[in-house]
Amino acid sequence: MAPPATDAATTKQEQQHAAGGEGVEVGGDLRLVAECGTVVRLSRSAARMSTTLFDMIEAGCAEGGIPIKGADVGTLRLVAAYCEKHAPHYDPVASAARLRDPFPPFPIEFTPASYAVKPVTQLDPDPHGLEAWDRKFISDLPDNSALFNLIIVANLMAIEDLVDLGCTAVADKMRGKTPDEIRVALDIENDYTPEQEAEVRRENAWAFED
Amino acid sequence: MASPPPPEPAPAEAGVESMEGLVLDTVISRAGARPAAALACASTRLRTAVADDSLWRGFCAEDLGLDAPVDPEGQPLPSFQVAYKVWLESFGMYPLPMVKRVKQFWTSMKTWLSENFPEAYRTLCKGVSEAQLKSAEDDLGFKLPMPTKLLYRFCNAQLPFSEDHDANKSISTHGLIGGYAFYDHWVNVHLSPLEQIVEETKDFYREFHDVFHGRKFIVVATSWFRPKTFLLDCSNGELYVGTYNLTIGGMLPCVPKALIKPAENDLAQDGLLLWLEEHLRRLQNGMIKTRMLMTSRYISLYPEAPPSCSSVVTNGIKVRSSAVFVPEHPGGPGEKFMFTYSIRMSVPEACMLGGVYYSSCQLCSRHWTIRSCDRVVSDVSGGGVIGQYPVLLPGEDEFVYESCTPLPKVPGSVEGSFSFVPGKLIRPEGKPFEVMVAPFPLQVPEYIF
Fold this sequence. Notes:
The complex is a heterodimer. By secondary structure, chain A is mostly helical. In chain A, 49% of the residues lie in helices and 5% in strands. In chain A, strand 1 (30-33) and strand 2 (39-42) form a beta hairpin. By secondary structure, chain B is of the alpha+beta class. The N and C termini of chain B lie far apart (94 Å). Classes of the chains: A mainly alpha, B alpha+beta.
């Protein structure tokens, strides 16, 4: 008998278990199902970071496999890794108050959680090493496609902090670059005709004056 | 036997354009306006995404403090995207945080003036162009500090002196900075428009050639009535007021030197901008107010609130007092400093003495103790105040008068008392009683206006 070496084999067995209704653990890890059928496990505490999953847990329908439509297994694993790393230090109030609309038409009242007592002078701005971990997480992504997929899946699962991280990374790639350089940096295909391109560059000439 | 697991399918190729609208908006708004414009040139689909005007509403608010799609003259434009472009074409040669700050200053100042001093609001002139600034710099022979240039781009200060004497007279008390009037020393400071700056600076250098040769001063504000001159040193951004010894180079800094930052970066602030912002703050928080001089309104520099203004009530009579440093006036032989002070007296509710209410009271004499570095330098008494014996009635407006005192050394203070009789001097209804004047400070302030 071949040892259950690969993830796929193990999770297939678990899937069969779940489907058969045998040995389902209530309160255990969630089982996210990628587009190809592979299962990626996610602890409950890590799942809190996804508003979608959190709502499902609260509603009691997070047992069994949760299909994440449109998510490939590689990206799902990355998302899971992010959530597991950030879960112990996750403050839902601080995160949820950050509205998706970066420029809402009304002022946001920000009341810090009563239990989040922050010292007046923070000696270490990154006490848990999360910022350093995030930087490496992003820089370890193989290509732009992986980054965009990450943002798309994080958006699907409503993981605000990860969407934020991803968007900031893309925004950082854009700054200080000419249109040609941006095309290279973000793998954008130029679909302008020469006349159109000249016109749009004229329109936006103000951005390139020094 | 377990079959080998199927290969995991490769993820679909994702591009920037495959991100959902709101996510793409987040990316663009994070990147900023200039990157957004560059992104629009990358592909037609991204051009459409960048054209979402809510993005540009955000950029206008964040970068320019602009909350409506209008051009620098206030004329409406079709979208925030167009507005951003128009503003950048006009002001893109300056760091945007400076543009936002100066725009905010003039908007707030104009709002305060239109609500509290519309006559002065009407003296403000339209901003100058870059070409006019360049022409002024060529005329002067040196460059103007960047924050000052921005101030004049938004507003070319106030109407200048003209040939028409009557026109001058009608706006003489409408100086943006304002002043004071004691005895025959009337001062009202106006901010000079660019043309007047150049003209007066040239006159200045001609008249005081030896003192100012080689320096880069410009005359930015002057007093109508008695002379009082404010000079901006364009080499370092410091603002000075000429003392009575201006002819031999006497001048004092008007703004704390530590706050002045060089013009090479986004956080630049020169003496003129800091001075004007501080002046506006004092107007907004009521530290200084407008007053009437006969039928003309003016901004009075006498402080109205503690700690510079002291206030005390004795027997129902309230006396408020504060002083202003007068750099352009010599104290007198042996006296280095001159101060003007304003005393305001009133009966807010009723004058009460020994359980009895009086319908009026009248001042008969004054007594002042003036200290310099805690040493008494003057102890004077006399009848009346500036030759007057005011009668105070309950509930009426304050009786206000101004006087002055020289001082050998700073800091100092003034305190004293008035002797009042209940009723009237011609028919007193009781014995005279003392009304206190709480001590008020005499010091050379951090900001001199």
